[in-house]
Amino acid sequence: MSERVSNCPGCGAPIKFLWSSAIQTTCEFCKSILVRTDVDLEKVGQVADLPPDASPIQIGTEGVHRNRPFTVIGRIVYEYQQGYWNEWHLIFNDGTSGWLSDAQLDYAVSYLWQPPSPLPPASNCNRQASFQWNGATYQVTVITTAHYVGVQGELPFKYWDKSDCLFVDLRTTDARFATIDYTETPPILFVGEAIDFADLHLKNLRQFDGWTQ
Amino acid sequence: MTSGPAGKVAKSVSLSCPSCGAPIDLRGYFHTVNVACAHCGAILDARTPTLTILQKFEKQTSIQPAIPLGSRGKLNGIDFEVIGYQLRQIVSDGVAYQWSEYLLFNPFQGYRYLTEYRGHWNFGRTLNALPAMQMGLRRTASVGAQVYRHFQTANAQTVYVLGEFPWQVRVGDEVSAADYVAAPFLLSSETTADEVVWSTAVYTDGRALWQAFQLPGSPPPVSGVYENQPSPYKGKVGSVWKTYFLLLIALIVAAIVLPTMINRNQKVFDRDYVFNGHPNGDSSFVTQPFELDGRTSSVEIKTITNLDNDWAYFHYALINQDTGHAFDFGREVSKFSDEGSKEDRVIVPSVASGKYYLRIEPEMDTNSPTLRFGRSLRYEVIVTRDPPVYWFFLVAFFLLLIPPIYVTIQAMKFEGARWAESDYGSGGSA
Q: What residues does each domain of chain B span?
């Protein structure tokens, strides 16, 4: 996996990886979804045009979380009742990855985390449920059924062609945040914190006509 | 700043209302889920290119928000644009209490809220943490170190909508809304079937908002006391009592020190007498003369008796030997078990210096136990020139109490007015 530059098997355009551990990326030109194999890139699907969105974040946006600089290198787009939301894939300068979710300009940074005991099945995860992780009580605050809309850029795993996605959001009394992602079996857990826009120190953002950051 | 590789400058959109044809500006970009036409009030689905009509009204009562949609202002150093407006109400005992809610937008920072009820404004945002709830007689909710007291829980209904919202909104929407207060802060929850949304707000001066949004005229007049309005007496009660105690200490020190400096407190006469009764005669007599020196000042005459379950009356005259000017006064001394005292003390004010003597005429009931059983009334008369006077300090003590008691009562009245509107007040509206 030392090869950092390849060609798109769909259109031949050069595909450059920003992160050596990326498993999946998309071709900017033909919108092919490409998965890295031992030898080459394999086209596994095609991204439909992503819906117009108004996130100030874009691929290439840089920021800082808890003194660790990061760059946005990919995203997963979901749709739910209140509109679209983005899970931006972050690559930190120490090579680890994380996620910055932007739902209606509510921001949260989270990291994939292995819970000490297996997560309950979705049918057992209701609004009354709570979990003890890392000395904090995480309470279920909202259960969201979302639709997978598309992907863009580099991701740490294979992820495409999902349909309905069930997410369980949890919060603590000290603004910690967690999401259980039931699109995978067994479900996977992301933990992190809700964060103010200003505290992310973002650079290289989108521009909005008539607004300055 | 420069835009990124995929950077497309986002622009606001102008469309027209499919219901009435009026122009509709979308200021909230693609975040906007619903938009209510400013002209006909129809609620439209902003995510469909044709703006599908979601809710329509036969008769639209047009409400002009005090801060017009599209107004921009800097709050806490961040620019916000007013993009949505809701009139909401709670109904209590058949009375509708209505307030305004403005939705503020910044494409980077997200959404904030302004609420207004009878000229009282609050600037708020959704809360990312879950408050820690403490149940009990009086519910509280804590966010970090801040403890909020439960104020009211009521059903809040949306009665009018204008502009854009990044969520589904309809006239008639109802949520269970709870408020917790820690003036000037407010913690609120809105509970629907799916979710509990918490938000915090801070009480904000309407004039500051008018300045921030550069609005003409003045904000709506403020009336009544609002749930999280900071008390004008907050902190003053403590400080006024602190001042009181400092002055009290000064007063006590003055009461101890000043008399020794100002008053001569000089004993000029002291004699013991015996009275056995004079059934048919005059019991009056005069004392040896004594000198009253110094400036014109008061004189204290003290009578100490051996009365026990009995009383006596003393006719006194303090007479100037040279001029014959007399100060006449009578003193009754009575001592019955726990009542009264064997001693009497009287102050004769403004006595000029000179040589004086006392004329004393004791008087007792002939049936008095003392005389009936053959005992004698023994008494001592002590005259003191310029004794210390304490009444001034006593008056000062009560005068000093007025400001702290006044401020304390005003502060209690303010809190009373605040909580009268809560679920815990007599005039509770929930």
A: 13-212, 264-387
Q: Output the six-digit token pair for A38.
A: 């031992």
Residue in this structure with the two tokens 């110094």, named with its chain if needed: B294
Domain B264-387 is found in CATH 3.20.20.140: no
Pick from B141, B216, B146: nearest CA to B184 = B146
Does B106 lie at the interface with A, CB-CB under 8 angstroms? yes
For residue B198, give both structure tokens.
């918490």
pLDDT in tens, B36-84: 998 888 999 988 888 889 988 877 677 899 999 999 999 999 999 999 9
> How many Å separate Cα B191 from the centre of its chain?
34
| Mutation to test the A interface, candidates B48, B128, B194, B198, most A Cβ within 10 Å | B128
pLDDT, tens only, A166-175: 999 999 998 8
Handedness of CA A193, A199, A202, A207 (dihedral sign): positive
Chain A residues contacting B via beta carbons under 8 Å: 51-54, 56, 58-61, 81-84, 104-108, 139, 141-143, 171-177, 193-195, 197-198, 203-213
DSSP-derived pairing of the beta strands B290-292 and A97-103: unpaired
Among all chains, which residue has been given the structure tokens 């009931």?
B365
In whole angstroms, give the CA distance from residue B138 to residue B150: 7
CA distance B102 to B219: 15
Global ipTM:
0.91
